[in-house]
TrEMBL record:
Pfam families: Abhydrolase_6, OsmC
Protein name stated in the entry: Putative redox protein
Gene3D superfamilies xrefs: 3.30.300.20, alpha/beta hydrolase
UniProt source species: Dokdonia pacifica
Organism domain of life: Bacteria
Domain annotation AB hydrolase-1: ranges: 33-177
């Protein structure tokens, strides 16, 4: 996955720090914006992992630091919930000008509430997804504890959150009290996905129920059973990204950009930090390749040789069914089971105990579900299996032409 460092200017004239996560071929079918959780940043693990999962499904994802947080300019004390919303609108304007208008907003925790507010104001957005979002922004007041009353009485106070000191002014509290997420959800009139964990101890799942009841259809709810509020577990965050991508496909058309960044059929992209987990774009489709944990991989996708064996299996099944239809033979189902290994040649009766004598071997088993096929027809089908294009490619002399670009 490719990630570009970017900056853009918000409505206050401040420079906001951002990253644009891109799919393997760097040619997103759609763009999304991610709004991070309260006092977090674009580099928080949940933000990064959900964004990367969306990018692996073909999205370009802009994640940025709200004003006064992370590497963005501005004083946090001068920000509030409403400035978060306007920052999201500024991010959408930046994407529209420099890349393509965003069609999806994703928000985590308070960022989810901000995404609902901003989604109703950004014309290009077709869908909004929230993760552990509060039904009312006032929910964050609970995190201020006893300092809340100090802020009300003295106009501001320092509050320590997750080991960091933040200055909160009374205008921050007043702004929260003036905003209702359920009202915004009621006015959204766009596809809405609500993801929430029943074990969320920070924002009760009751909040998800309130947002869901307020919103109009199309609306969906997905339980994140077993997850905690901050989605620290990478597998949980990746799951969330894939669920959002699958759901969004129903409401957002996947249109390729006019400028295609590659003329090749397949693109693979691997970051150093991902060990062996490789993002792939095969034609117009996205998937992962990986290695098993036993050799340092994450097992998030098939191995390269499993992909190759899969190509042989798929091509064999397609070729058999194509031939059967042409002959008027009814085959209800074709299963092709294939495994790869290094083995001695079949005609090697007394090969030496030498690994160099072994050859690449694909063991293929064909299962047919069909009534009325005689032995002669079955034998012909097996002959046809050996004529599938991938089978021929594996047997033919091939060449790989490489160049460094």
């Amino acid at each position: 996955m490719k990630s570009r460092k970017l900056t853009f200017i918000n409505a206050e004239g401040k420079s906001l720090s951002a990253r644009l996560d891109l799919p393997a071929n760097q040619d997103p079918h759609n763009f999304a914006i991610f709004a991070h959780c309260f006092t977090c940043s674009k580099d928080f693990s949940a933000v990064r992992n959900v964004s990367r999962a969306l990018a692996s499904e073909g999205f370009g994802v802009l994640r940025f630091d709200f004003m006064g947080l992370g590497r963005s300019e501005g004083d946090f004390a001068d920000t509030n919930f409403s400035t978060n919303v306007t920052d999201l609108i500024s991010a959408a304007e930046f994407l529209t000008k420099e890349y393509k208008a965003p069609s999806l907003l994703v928000g985590h925790s308070l960022g989810g509430a901000a995404a609902i507010f901003a989604g109703g104001q950004i014309e290009s957005v077709l869908a909004v997804a929230t993760i552990g979002a509060p039904s009312n922004p006032q929910h964050v007041q609970k995190q201020l504890g006893s300092r809340l009353e100090v802020i009300r009485q003295e106009g501001q106070a320092n509050v320590t959150l997750a080991g960091r000191d933040f200055t909160f002014k009374k205008q921050f509290i007043d702004d929260l009290e003036a905003c209702s997420c359920t009202d915004a959800a009621r006015k959204l009139n766009k596809a809405l996905l609500i993801l929430h964990s029943p074990q969320d101890a920070t924002v009760s799942i009751k909040n998800a129920e309130e947002i869901y009841h307020a919103a109009h259809h199309p609306k969906s709810f997905v339980t994140l059973d077993g997850s905690e509020h901050l989605l620290i577990d990478k597998k949980n965050a990746s799951y969330v990204g894939k669920v959002i991508a699958g759901w969004a496909a129903r409401y957002i058309p996947a249109v390729e950009n006019d400028t295609i960044s590659t003329t090749y059929q397949v693109v693979a992209s691997l970051d150093d930090e991902d060990k062996y987990t490789t993002e792939l774009k095969l034609g117009n489709h996205y998937m992962k390749a990986d290695e098993p944990p036993s050799i340092g991989g994450n097992d998030y996708g098939p191995t390269p040789y499993e992909l190759l064996a899969g190509s042989l299996s798929a091509c064999t099944a397609m070729t058999i069914q194509m031939y059967a239809r042409r002959k008027g033979w009814k085959i209800d189902n074709v299963e092709v089971h294939t495994s790869y290994s290094k083995s001695y040649p079949e005609d090697c009766q007394s090969c030496p105990d030498d690994a160099t004598a072994k050859i690449d071997t694909f063991t293929r088993v064909v299962k047919l579900t069909a009534d009325g096929l005689d032995d002669k027809q079955k034998a012909r089908i097996m002959q046809i299996a050996d004529k599938c294009p991938v089978h021929k490619t594996l047997h033919n002399e091939t060449q790989v032409i490489s160049r460094l670009e």
